[in-house]
Annexin (Salmo trutta), 491 residues
Amino acid sequence: MSYPGYPPSGGYPPQAGGYPPQAGGYPPQAGGYPPQAGGYPPQAGGYPPQPGAYPPQAGGYPPQAGGYPPQAGGYPTQAGGFPPQAGGYPPQAGGYPPQQAGGYPSIPPAQGGWGGAPVGGMPGGGMPQGYPGGPAPGQQPMPGYPGGAPAPNPSMPGYGGGAPAIPHSPAINRGYRGAIKDHPGADPLRDVEVLRKAMKGFGTDESAIIELLGSRTSKQRVPMVAAYKTTYGKDLFHDLKSELTGSFEKLAIAMLQTPAKFDASELKEAISGAGTDEACLIEILSSRSNAEIREINQIYKHEYGKTLEDSISNDTSGHFRRLLVSLCQGNRDEREQVDTNMAKQDAQKLYAAGENKVGTDESQFNAILCARSKPHLRAVFHEYQQMCGRDIVKSICREMSGDVEDGMVAVVKCIRNTPEYFAERLHKAMAGAGTKDRTLIRVMVTRSEVDMLDIRQVYQQTYGKSLYTAISGDTSGDYKKMLLKLCGGSD
């Protein structure tokens, strides 16, 4: 039996059937997304180097017999050396890119990508060797990378010898990382009988409501709304609001909405409430997938009669508005593969737009942080640290201020380590005098079936106590009991 608003099979977040790169995409992978062997994040045979992976073996880099630097016979290199010959890297049928005899590969224009712009800005879509040209007049030379061979161009950084260091990224946890799992045999028609009984007559059985809602996943809770109206001819949200109060009421209402509808309502409140909750806007738009953001846009337009982009544009300004408008398009690259050379070039662009420039080119930060894939950006952040010896977050704080600084920093933190970002959001919501209940409710509801186990682990390591303990000490009553259900346990 299907009910209006019932999330698609697979629940939230999107499961198989989500956003795969299409055949012919960049780079083509057998089976598409998630990444196959050799992809990023690390898979068997991937990065760090495994047998047969990167760095390439005989004939590749680091130098082998006949490779680079030139052996007997001089440069150009011998068969199998550099530059790539026919059958070079990678040697897969239909692989990336097709080799030209004796030449450097040329990259075809992007298909369905960002305006089909040439990769690296070269005419015809060619990939430049090494880095783009030196700094503009009046700029400082680029810093050199530590150790190893000198840079081929004095104005560009020189990388150390051997394979590049492994970009830092959070450990990939296998399997389901949410704290709430599907309840076996859950039936919305039987569940609404429990809710009706808990609210009927004198008084309310809050414990029954907590036990029921706290033991069902979102896709099992949402159909209760339609089942309640079908069975009793009444609106479940209306009845809950009349029976419950305060933060407990808001939490119960949030749990009965689809993820996208709840996000849309939170964005609306963040924009039209007293003042603008910039942190909420960034939190939602930087942590959701393209498919989720597009669904939020549809619901927002349907519910509130105007587009999310228009609402953001009317309520914000300057570079912060541009950042939010870019994020709400839902067009971020979602490929999992990482091109290390491209990551180095993007790190160079960020350095040239900030630390190595009088003033700051915020539009360059915007273009890279909002369009590139999350695995790629993690590699960019690592390369940036290696290149200039400063964390990207510290550079942003030195170069920017106000809302745009807060926004850029939040985007970087969320992309670099999402559980760590949400652990910090929870800590700040409960720290100091008073509790930011809206933030606490939103994070606990939206992450309870995504990465709550990871958030709990990071929270314990970072703040020296479990998230369960923190919630217990900062909330009370039925509200506390329901939040602890979403937390799933103490660490």
